[in-house]
Amino acid sequence: MIVADFLAASNVLIVAGKGGVGKTTVGASIGLAAARAGLDTLIIELEGRSKLAAPFGVEALDYEEITLAEPPDVPGRLRARQITPDDALVDYLTDTGLGRLAGRFSRTGTVDLITTSAPGIRDLVTIGKIRNLEQSGAADLIIVDAPAAGHAITFLRSPAGLAGSATGGPIRSQAEQALEMLADPSRCQVLLVTLPEETPVTELVETAFTLEDHVDVKLGPVVVNAVWPDINRLEQAGDAGDDGAVGYRLARLERQRAEIDRLARELPVARLHLPFIFSGELNAEDIALLADALESAITELDDPSNGEAS
């Protein structure tokens, strides 16, 4: 499969997974791969604590977007910004002609009162802001670094819940428009991330089934992150003389294969494997290596053998 075609299949790609599986790193790697494929790409950080931009030398994101990378010789670029429910609500009020009211809300803290008084409204206005960016053509691809899996389900279910409880008015309209985006695979897909370990695989499968049952959104390929290389590569790295190290790695590889096989049985969708990065804090070079691996994995998705790319 051609990388640009795969990444441009949906306008919005929501990257979600259990905390600690590396979904933010995966999102950054997808963003860089998309930019290198010539797509104008925007990554949106929702939680504000993910350090999404750190590998690119940026300490933190805020509401104003910044450019993280501009690959040479292609028209693509990678931009990033943060969206908070408060800022999304102020934007919504401004766009609907209530700018003066929005300014007063932001000064007095009434925004927080409104978004906490109606369950789901914080998530709805955030999805609404993402939908506005998608509809305005703000980027060829919008990547959303979603909350951890449990909150991600609540986040994605909020439009349906509010559409069902609101009899009319702007809340119902916003909810219906959000549902239209989520239900259209050409506009939105969810990409789930896991580690090749028992608990993350179990939680990913449960999350996938919950999304299928309660959210009308298309699931893209699963990303299996931090896959250890086979023992031959480790031996070449100098571990062959240490029987304890080799034994540990063989046992880990066996568990890894078992969990990947279980994932294939319980959730028969395409998988993209990304390698384990043997370093501490990831930097731009590490993200580039993961983007390389992602591109290779995507090109192998046409292989009909088992739906797996690694």
Structure summary:
The chain is α/β, with parallel strands linked by helices and 310 residues long.
Notes on the structure:
By secondary structure, the chain is of the alpha/beta class. The protein has one domain: Rossmann fold. It is 52% helix and 17% strand. It is built from 12 helices and 10 strands. Strands 1, 2, 3, 4, 5, 6, 7, 8, 9 and 10 form a 10-stranded mixed sheet that branches. A hairpin with a 7-residue loop joins strand 3 (66-69) and strand 4. The longest helix has 24 residues, at 243-266. The chain is globular. The mean pLDDT is 87.
Features:
alpha/beta, single chain, Rossmann fold, 310 residues, 10-stranded mixed β-sheet, 10 strands
Task: Spell out the blueprint of helices and strands.
Blueprint: H1 3-7, E1 12-17, H2 23-36, E2 40-45, E3 66-69, E4 77-82, H3 85-95, H4 99-108, H5 110-117, H6 121-135, E5 141-148, H7 149-165, H8 169-183, E6 188-194, H9 198-214, E7 218-219, E8 222-227, H10 231-239, H11 243-266, E9 271-275, H12 284-299, E10 308-309
Parallel strand pairs: 1-5, 1-6, 2-4, 2-5, 6-7, 6-8, 8-9, 9-10
Antiparallel strand pairs: 3-4
Termini Cα gap: 14 Å
Given the structure, what is the number of helices?
12
The shape is globular
Radius of gyration: 20 Å
User: What name is given to the CATH topology?
Assistant: Rossmann fold
Series of H and E elements: HEHEEEHHHHEHHEHEEHHEHE
Oligomeric assembly: single chain
Main sheet properties: 10 strands, mixed
Measured as a percent range, the helix fraction is 40-55%
Hey, roughly how much beta strand do the residues contain?
Answer: 15-25%
Regarding CATH, which class?
Alpha Beta
Number of strands: 10
